[in-house]
Records
---
Amino acid sequence: MNETLFLIYFPIWTALVIGTWLFFRGRDPAFKKRWYRRVSVFNITLIGGMIVLMTIPMSLPFAMFGAAIVVFMWIPLFRTRVCLECGKVCQPENLITPQKFCSKCGAGLDA
Protein backbone atom coordinates (compact mmCIF):
# COMPACT_ATOMS: atom_id res chain seq x y z
CA MET A 1 0.00 0.00 0.00
CA ASN A 2 1.24 3.47 -0.81
CA GLU A 3 1.67 5.14 2.60
CA THR A 4 1.95 8.65 1.19
CA LEU A 5 -1.47 8.43 -0.48
CA PHE A 6 -2.89 6.84 2.65
CA LEU A 7 -1.73 9.79 4.77
CA ILE A 8 -3.28 12.40 2.48
CA TYR A 9 -6.49 10.43 1.82
CA PHE A 10 -8.35 11.54 4.95
CA PRO A 11 -7.49 15.27 4.76
CA ILE A 12 -8.58 15.32 1.11
CA TRP A 13 -11.76 13.40 1.95
CA THR A 14 -12.52 15.86 4.76
CA ALA A 15 -11.89 18.83 2.46
CA LEU A 16 -14.23 17.34 -0.17
CA VAL A 17 -17.00 16.80 2.38
CA ILE A 18 -16.77 20.33 3.77
CA GLY A 19 -16.31 21.87 0.32
CA THR A 20 -19.30 20.04 -1.14
CA TRP A 21 -21.46 21.00 1.84
CA LEU A 22 -20.47 24.67 1.49
CA PHE A 23 -20.99 24.56 -2.29
CA PHE A 24 -24.59 23.32 -1.98
CA ARG A 25 -25.52 25.10 1.27
CA GLY A 26 -28.36 27.55 0.80
CA ARG A 27 -28.66 27.00 -2.96
CA ASP A 28 -31.92 26.72 -4.81
CA PRO A 29 -33.14 23.30 -6.00
CA ALA A 30 -32.47 24.06 -9.68
CA PHE A 31 -28.81 24.77 -8.87
CA LYS A 32 -28.54 21.52 -6.91
CA LYS A 33 -30.11 19.56 -9.77
CA ARG A 34 -27.77 21.12 -12.32
CA TRP A 35 -24.56 20.58 -10.30
CA TYR A 36 -25.20 17.45 -8.21
CA ARG A 37 -24.07 14.91 -10.84
CA ARG A 38 -20.94 16.83 -11.77
CA VAL A 39 -19.82 17.29 -8.18
CA SER A 40 -20.58 13.64 -7.37
CA VAL A 41 -18.54 12.37 -10.30
CA PHE A 42 -15.65 14.65 -9.34
CA ASN A 43 -15.71 13.50 -5.70
CA ILE A 44 -16.02 9.80 -6.55
CA THR A 45 -13.29 10.02 -9.18
CA LEU A 46 -10.89 11.76 -6.83
CA ILE A 47 -11.47 9.54 -3.79
CA GLY A 48 -11.87 6.36 -5.85
CA GLY A 49 -8.76 7.16 -7.85
CA MET A 50 -6.76 7.55 -4.66
CA ILE A 51 -8.06 4.20 -3.35
CA VAL A 52 -7.21 2.48 -6.63
CA LEU A 53 -3.73 4.05 -6.62
CA MET A 54 -3.18 2.79 -3.08
CA THR A 55 -4.05 -0.76 -4.16
CA ILE A 56 -2.14 -0.96 -7.47
CA PRO A 57 0.50 -3.41 -6.15
CA MET A 58 -2.24 -5.83 -5.03
CA SER A 59 -4.24 -7.15 -7.99
CA LEU A 60 -7.38 -8.45 -6.24
CA PRO A 61 -8.13 -5.29 -4.18
CA PHE A 62 -7.29 -3.22 -7.27
CA ALA A 63 -9.94 -5.05 -9.31
CA MET A 64 -12.50 -4.96 -6.50
CA PHE A 65 -12.13 -1.23 -5.83
CA GLY A 66 -12.13 -0.48 -9.56
CA ALA A 67 -15.44 -2.30 -9.97
CA ALA A 68 -16.85 -0.62 -6.85
CA ILE A 69 -16.06 2.82 -8.27
CA VAL A 70 -18.10 2.02 -11.37
CA VAL A 71 -21.07 0.98 -9.21
CA PHE A 72 -20.78 4.02 -6.96
CA MET A 73 -20.65 6.29 -9.99
CA TRP A 74 -23.75 4.65 -11.49
CA ILE A 75 -25.93 5.61 -8.51
CA PRO A 76 -25.45 9.41 -8.53
CA LEU A 77 -25.38 9.62 -12.31
CA PHE A 78 -28.51 7.70 -13.17
CA ARG A 79 -30.51 6.89 -10.04
CA THR A 80 -30.30 9.86 -7.67
CA ARG A 81 -32.90 12.62 -8.08
CA VAL A 82 -33.08 16.16 -6.72
CA CYS A 83 -36.50 17.42 -5.64
CA LEU A 84 -37.28 20.71 -7.36
CA GLU A 85 -39.79 21.65 -4.63
CA CYS A 86 -37.64 21.38 -1.49
CA GLY A 87 -34.12 20.68 -2.81
CA LYS A 88 -33.66 17.32 -1.08
CA VAL A 89 -31.29 14.86 -2.77
CA CYS A 90 -33.28 11.60 -2.95
CA GLN A 91 -31.22 8.43 -3.07
CA PRO A 92 -32.63 5.39 -4.91
CA GLU A 93 -34.72 2.76 -3.17
CA ASN A 94 -32.33 0.12 -4.51
CA LEU A 95 -29.65 0.04 -7.21
CA ILE A 96 -32.18 -0.30 -10.02
CA THR A 97 -35.23 1.77 -9.04
CA PRO A 98 -34.94 5.53 -8.47
CA GLN A 99 -37.40 7.15 -6.10
CA LYS A 100 -40.56 8.45 -7.71
CA PHE A 101 -41.58 10.84 -4.92
CA CYS A 102 -39.60 13.03 -2.53
CA SER A 103 -39.34 11.53 0.96
CA LYS A 104 -39.37 15.00 2.53
CA CYS A 105 -42.21 16.85 0.80
CA GLY A 106 -43.91 14.17 -1.32
CA ALA A 107 -43.48 15.96 -4.66
CA GLY A 108 -42.99 13.91 -7.81
CA LEU A 109 -39.41 13.50 -9.00
CA ASP A 110 -38.45 13.67 -12.65
CA ALA A 111 -35.25 12.50 -14.29
Note: Helices lie at 3-24, 29-54, 59-79.
---
Amino acid sequence: MNQAETFVSDVPVYQFKFYSVRTGDMILSDRYATLDAIQLVNGVPVLQTRQLVPQAEIDANGFHDLESH
Protein backbone atom coordinates (compact mmCIF):
# COMPACT_ATOMS: atom_id res chain seq x y z
CA MET A 1 0.00 0.00 0.00
CA ASN A 2 1.36 3.44 -0.82
CA GLN A 3 0.97 6.64 1.20
CA ALA A 4 -1.95 7.91 -0.92
CA GLU A 5 -3.93 4.75 -0.19
CA THR A 6 -3.51 5.08 3.58
CA PHE A 7 -4.17 8.83 3.75
CA VAL A 8 -7.41 9.79 5.48
CA SER A 9 -8.74 13.09 4.20
CA ASP A 10 -10.15 15.75 6.47
CA VAL A 11 -13.58 17.13 5.75
CA PRO A 12 -14.84 20.60 6.70
CA VAL A 13 -17.89 20.66 8.96
CA TYR A 14 -19.86 23.60 10.31
CA GLN A 15 -22.42 24.43 12.93
CA PHE A 16 -25.63 25.60 11.32
CA LYS A 17 -28.88 27.37 12.00
CA PHE A 18 -32.22 25.81 11.19
CA TYR A 19 -35.83 26.89 11.47
CA SER A 20 -37.67 25.46 14.46
CA VAL A 21 -41.35 24.93 13.77
CA ARG A 22 -41.93 24.65 17.53
CA THR A 23 -40.48 28.07 18.41
CA GLY A 24 -40.75 29.87 15.07
CA ASP A 25 -37.09 30.94 15.36
CA MET A 26 -33.77 30.09 13.75
CA ILE A 27 -31.88 27.84 16.18
CA LEU A 28 -28.14 27.14 16.31
CA SER A 29 -27.49 23.41 16.10
CA ASP A 30 -25.21 21.78 18.65
CA ARG A 31 -24.09 19.40 15.92
CA TYR A 32 -21.71 20.02 13.07
CA ALA A 33 -22.33 18.87 9.51
CA THR A 34 -20.97 19.03 5.99
CA LEU A 35 -22.34 21.71 3.70
CA ASP A 36 -24.25 19.06 1.74
CA ALA A 37 -25.94 17.76 4.90
CA ILE A 38 -26.80 21.29 6.02
CA GLN A 39 -28.40 21.99 2.65
CA LEU A 40 -30.50 18.81 2.90
CA VAL A 41 -32.05 20.00 6.19
CA ASN A 42 -32.58 23.51 4.79
CA GLY A 43 -30.07 24.88 7.28
CA VAL A 44 -27.79 27.89 7.07
CA PRO A 45 -24.09 27.19 7.75
CA VAL A 46 -22.24 29.38 10.25
CA LEU A 47 -19.02 29.66 8.26
CA GLN A 48 -16.95 30.96 11.20
CA THR A 49 -17.40 27.58 12.97
CA ARG A 50 -15.53 25.60 10.30
CA GLN A 51 -13.61 22.61 11.68
CA LEU A 52 -11.68 19.91 9.84
CA VAL A 53 -12.42 16.35 10.94
CA PRO A 54 -11.41 12.95 9.57
CA GLN A 55 -13.83 11.55 6.99
CA ALA A 56 -14.20 8.44 9.17
CA GLU A 57 -15.87 10.54 11.90
CA ILE A 58 -18.66 11.75 9.60
CA ASP A 59 -21.82 9.66 9.80
CA ALA A 60 -23.75 8.41 6.77
CA ASN A 61 -25.91 11.54 6.84
CA GLY A 62 -22.97 13.96 6.87
CA PHE A 63 -23.11 14.86 10.59
CA HIS A 64 -20.37 15.02 13.20
CA ASP A 65 -20.61 15.72 16.93
CA LEU A 66 -17.42 17.57 17.86
CA GLU A 67 -18.43 17.67 21.52
CA SER A 68 -18.23 13.87 21.81
CA HIS A 69 -14.51 13.74 20.91
Note: The chain has a mean pLDDT of 88.
---
Amino acid sequence: MKTAKITNVRKTGQFPSDFGGDDGNLHSQEVVLSDGTTGSANTKTPVPWYKIGDEVSYEITGEYNGTPKLKISKVGGFQGGGRPKYDSTGQTVGMAINNAVQLVCHGKIGFKALENTARRIVEIAKLLDKEFSPAPPAQTPAPEQKPSQAELPDNMEPVQPAQEPAQETEIEDDDVPF
Protein backbone atom coordinates (compact mmCIF):
# COMPACT_ATOMS: atom_id res chain seq x y z
CA MET A 1 0.00 0.00 0.00
CA LYS A 2 1.10 3.55 -0.70
CA THR A 3 0.86 6.44 1.74
CA ALA A 4 -0.22 10.03 0.99
CA LYS A 5 -2.13 12.95 2.50
CA ILE A 6 -5.66 13.77 1.42
CA THR A 7 -5.78 17.15 -0.33
CA ASN A 8 -9.45 17.12 -1.35
CA VAL A 9 -12.62 15.06 -0.77
CA ARG A 10 -15.87 15.60 -2.64
CA LYS A 11 -19.07 13.55 -2.48
CA THR A 12 -20.08 12.41 -5.95
CA GLY A 13 -23.18 10.33 -5.22
CA GLN A 14 -24.71 7.37 -3.48
CA PHE A 15 -26.21 4.07 -4.49
CA PRO A 16 -28.11 1.25 -2.77
CA SER A 17 -25.96 -1.70 -1.73
CA ASP A 18 -26.10 -4.80 0.48
CA PHE A 19 -22.75 -3.58 1.87
CA GLY A 20 -24.07 -0.08 2.64
CA GLY A 21 -24.33 1.59 6.00
CA ASP A 22 -27.37 2.16 8.19
CA ASP A 23 -29.23 3.86 5.34
CA GLY A 24 -28.57 0.90 3.00
CA ASN A 25 -26.40 3.00 0.69
CA LEU A 26 -22.76 3.28 -0.24
CA HIS A 27 -21.59 6.86 -0.69
CA SER A 28 -19.13 7.61 -3.45
CA GLN A 29 -16.33 10.14 -2.78
CA GLU A 30 -13.82 11.66 -5.18
CA VAL A 31 -10.50 11.71 -3.32
CA VAL A 32 -7.39 13.67 -4.35
CA LEU A 33 -4.09 12.67 -2.72
CA SER A 34 -0.85 14.62 -2.22
CA ASP A 35 1.09 12.33 -4.58
CA GLY A 36 -1.22 13.32 -7.47
CA THR A 37 -3.47 10.25 -7.33
CA THR A 38 -7.17 10.95 -7.87
CA GLY A 39 -9.83 8.30 -7.59
CA SER A 40 -13.18 7.21 -6.25
CA ALA A 41 -13.69 5.65 -2.83
CA ASN A 42 -16.92 4.28 -1.37
CA THR A 43 -17.92 4.82 2.25
CA LYS A 44 -20.80 3.53 4.37
CA THR A 45 -21.59 7.00 5.72
CA PRO A 46 -22.26 10.26 3.84
CA VAL A 47 -19.25 11.87 5.57
CA PRO A 48 -16.14 9.64 5.36
CA TRP A 49 -13.92 8.92 8.39
CA TYR A 50 -10.97 10.64 6.65
CA LYS A 51 -10.68 14.37 5.99
CA ILE A 52 -8.40 16.84 4.22
CA GLY A 53 -4.91 16.74 5.74
CA ASP A 54 -5.14 13.14 7.02
CA GLU A 55 -2.31 10.82 6.09
CA VAL A 56 -3.77 7.56 4.76
CA SER A 57 -2.68 4.32 3.16
CA TYR A 58 -4.32 3.48 -0.12
CA GLU A 59 -4.29 1.06 -3.00
CA ILE A 60 -5.90 1.16 -6.40
CA THR A 61 -8.20 -1.85 -6.59
CA GLY A 62 -9.60 -1.39 -10.08
CA GLU A 63 -11.29 1.08 -12.35
CA TYR A 64 -14.87 2.22 -12.91
CA ASN A 65 -15.78 4.35 -15.95
CA GLY A 66 -12.13 5.33 -16.38
CA THR A 67 -11.73 6.44 -12.73
CA PRO A 68 -9.41 4.50 -10.41
CA LYS A 69 -11.16 2.82 -7.46
CA LEU A 70 -9.35 3.51 -4.19
CA LYS A 71 -9.28 1.47 -1.01
CA ILE A 72 -8.36 3.90 1.77
CA SER A 73 -7.25 2.84 5.26
CA LYS A 74 -5.46 4.29 8.27
CA VAL A 75 -1.67 4.33 8.11
CA GLY A 76 -0.40 1.21 9.84
CA GLY A 77 -3.99 0.19 10.44
CA PHE A 78 -5.04 -3.38 10.97
CA GLN A 79 -5.86 -5.17 7.75
CA GLY A 80 -7.26 -8.63 8.14
CA GLY A 81 -9.85 -10.79 9.76
CA GLY A 82 -11.14 -9.73 13.11
CA ARG A 83 -11.39 -13.21 14.61
CA PRO A 84 -8.69 -14.38 16.98
CA LYS A 85 -7.02 -17.68 16.24
CA TYR A 86 -8.26 -20.74 18.09
CA ASP A 87 -6.40 -21.23 21.37
CA SER A 88 -6.60 -24.85 22.53
CA THR A 89 -4.46 -24.11 25.61
CA GLY A 90 -6.94 -21.49 26.80
CA GLN A 91 -9.79 -23.90 26.27
CA THR A 92 -8.00 -26.67 28.18
CA VAL A 93 -7.13 -24.42 31.12
CA GLY A 94 -10.69 -23.04 31.24
CA MET A 95 -12.12 -26.55 31.24
CA ALA A 96 -9.75 -27.59 34.03
CA ILE A 97 -10.63 -24.61 36.22
CA ASN A 98 -14.35 -25.14 35.62
CA ASN A 99 -14.15 -28.81 36.57
CA ALA A 100 -12.03 -28.11 39.67
CA VAL A 101 -14.56 -25.47 40.80
CA GLN A 102 -17.35 -28.01 40.29
CA LEU A 103 -15.48 -30.41 42.58
CA VAL A 104 -15.22 -27.68 45.23
CA CYS A 105 -18.92 -26.82 44.89
CA HIS A 106 -19.94 -30.46 45.34
CA GLY A 107 -17.71 -30.89 48.37
CA LYS A 108 -15.36 -33.39 46.72
CA ILE A 109 -12.25 -31.25 47.37
CA GLY A 110 -11.43 -28.28 49.57
CA PHE A 111 -10.86 -24.79 48.19
CA LYS A 112 -7.12 -25.04 48.93
CA ALA A 113 -6.83 -28.01 46.54
CA LEU A 114 -8.47 -26.13 43.65
CA GLU A 115 -5.29 -24.94 41.91
CA ASN A 116 -3.43 -28.26 42.18
CA THR A 117 -6.51 -30.14 41.00
CA ALA A 118 -6.92 -27.82 37.99
CA ARG A 119 -3.22 -28.25 37.12
CA ARG A 120 -3.55 -32.04 37.33
CA ILE A 121 -6.63 -31.96 35.09
CA VAL A 122 -4.61 -29.93 32.52
CA GLU A 123 -1.80 -32.53 32.69
CA ILE A 124 -4.27 -35.35 32.13
CA ALA A 125 -5.92 -33.47 29.23
CA LYS A 126 -2.50 -32.93 27.59
CA LEU A 127 -1.62 -36.61 27.95
CA LEU A 128 -4.96 -37.63 26.45
CA ASP A 129 -4.58 -35.08 23.66
CA LYS A 130 -1.15 -36.47 22.81
CA GLU A 131 -2.47 -40.03 22.92
CA PHE A 132 -5.49 -39.39 20.71
CA SER A 133 -4.00 -36.87 18.25
CA PRO A 134 -3.29 -38.28 14.82
CA ALA A 135 0.37 -38.91 14.22
CA PRO A 136 2.03 -36.61 11.69
CA PRO A 137 2.57 -38.26 8.32
CA ALA A 138 5.86 -40.13 8.22
CA GLN A 139 8.48 -38.94 5.77
CA THR A 140 9.32 -42.42 4.52
CA PRO A 141 9.87 -43.57 0.99
CA ALA A 142 7.00 -45.30 -0.77
CA PRO A 143 6.71 -48.97 0.27
CA GLU A 144 7.90 -51.46 -2.24
CA GLN A 145 5.20 -53.28 -4.16
CA LYS A 146 4.27 -56.61 -2.54
CA PRO A 147 3.00 -59.44 -4.68
CA SER A 148 -0.76 -59.95 -4.72
CA GLN A 149 -2.34 -63.24 -3.65
CA ALA A 150 -2.65 -64.21 -7.31
CA GLU A 151 1.13 -63.79 -7.85
CA LEU A 152 2.08 -66.00 -4.88
CA PRO A 153 2.68 -69.69 -5.29
CA ASP A 154 -0.20 -71.90 -4.09
CA ASN A 155 1.65 -72.98 -0.95
CA MET A 156 2.33 -69.39 0.31
CA GLU A 157 0.08 -66.93 2.10
CA PRO A 158 0.72 -63.18 2.34
CA VAL A 159 2.36 -62.03 5.57
CA GLN A 160 0.18 -59.78 7.74
CA PRO A 161 1.97 -56.80 9.28
CA ALA A 162 2.51 -57.05 13.03
CA GLN A 163 0.44 -54.69 15.15
CA GLU A 164 2.22 -52.58 17.71
CA PRO A 165 0.91 -52.92 21.27
CA ALA A 166 -1.00 -49.91 22.56
CA GLN A 167 1.09 -47.59 24.71
CA GLU A 168 -0.20 -47.18 28.21
CA THR A 169 0.29 -43.90 30.03
CA GLU A 170 1.04 -43.92 33.71
CA ILE A 171 -1.05 -41.37 35.60
CA GLU A 172 -0.30 -40.92 39.23
CA ASP A 173 -3.38 -39.83 41.05
CA ASP A 174 -1.93 -39.52 44.54
CA ASP A 175 -2.51 -35.78 44.50
CA VAL A 176 -5.98 -35.87 42.94
CA PRO A 177 -8.75 -36.83 45.38
CA PHE A 178 -11.20 -38.25 42.86
Note: The domain at 2-74 is CATH 2.40.50 (OB fold (Dihydrolipoamide Acetyltransferase, E2P)).
